[in-house]
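wait is this the right file?? whatever heres the structure
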């Protein structure tokens, strides 16, 4: 029976699924690398973006124009270009090789971590800024009337309310960040797409590896979208209209 399935997979089926399953360890490694890269860079990018987004929303003198230039540059250039500039270009500069960050920049993982984190932070900064500015002014005035200080208003009113407002946009950004991790495969990191390329190269296949990678990314995207749909439903449950029987 097993031999029959193997023969069908390799000779008759348009996709050699037995071969794909036999390389599950390769794709498991790629999936693990993708998840690590995504979770770490999304977390770091979010942490960096929070104070930057607040500064942009409050139009802090000097800081706000600098942050605007930063977000404009990193949102206006492709992530692939940013990653290549770090991976291939940083080592050409003497002061970079002599700096404390060179041990990180000389490794593919370090370059991917820095490029992905900075890129994510640029997008999330503008999302946070827009979320804070979208908070109804009446809620802010009510907080002021209660005697809340600026930091207290920010912590208890503005940020929680802004997070609810920006959640759909933020979820889309994280989905894009997840899919953007494929850039890591271009600098020797074996992520999901890198595993697919490796499989195709090992067995001279046309599309089995890419198709498997696509299926994995669809599953990851679906799971992430469902997670944020659940969060949005929970956090905005009080906004649903009441139903009377």
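ok assuming it is, sequence goes like this
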């Amino acid at each position: 029976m097993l031999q029959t399935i193997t023969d069908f997979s390799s000779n008759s089926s348009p996709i050699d699924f037995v071969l794909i399953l036999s390389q599950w360890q390769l794709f498991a490694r790629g999936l693990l690398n993708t998840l690590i890269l995504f979770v770490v860079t999304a977390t770091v990018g979010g942490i960096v973006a929070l104070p930057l987004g607040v500064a942009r929303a409050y139009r802090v003198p000097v800081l706000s124009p600098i942050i605007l230039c930063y977000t404009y540059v990193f949102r206006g250039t492709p992530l692939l270009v940013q990653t290549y500039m770090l991976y291939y270009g940083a080592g050409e500069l003497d002061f970079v090789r002599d700096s404390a960050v060179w041990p990180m920049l000389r490794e593919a993982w370090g370059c991917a971590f820095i490029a992905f984190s900075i890129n994510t932070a640029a997008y999330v900064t503008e999302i946070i800024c827009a979320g804070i500015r979208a908070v109804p002014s009446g809620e802010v005035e009510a907080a002021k009337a209660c005697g809340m200080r600026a930091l207290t208003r920010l912590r208890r009113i503005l940020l929680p309310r802004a997070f609810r407002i920006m959640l759909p946009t933020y979820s889309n950004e994280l989905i894009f960040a997840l899919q953007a991790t494929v850039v890591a495969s271009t600098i020797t990191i074996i992520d999901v797409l890198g595993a697919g390329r490796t499989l195709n190269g090992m067995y001279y296949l046309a599309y089995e590896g890419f198709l498997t990678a696509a299926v994995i990314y669809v599953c990851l995207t679906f799971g992430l979208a469902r997670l944020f749909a659940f969060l949005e439903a929970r956090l905005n449950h009080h906004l649903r209209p009441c139903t009377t029987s």
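The chain has twelve helices and no strands. so i think its the right one actually
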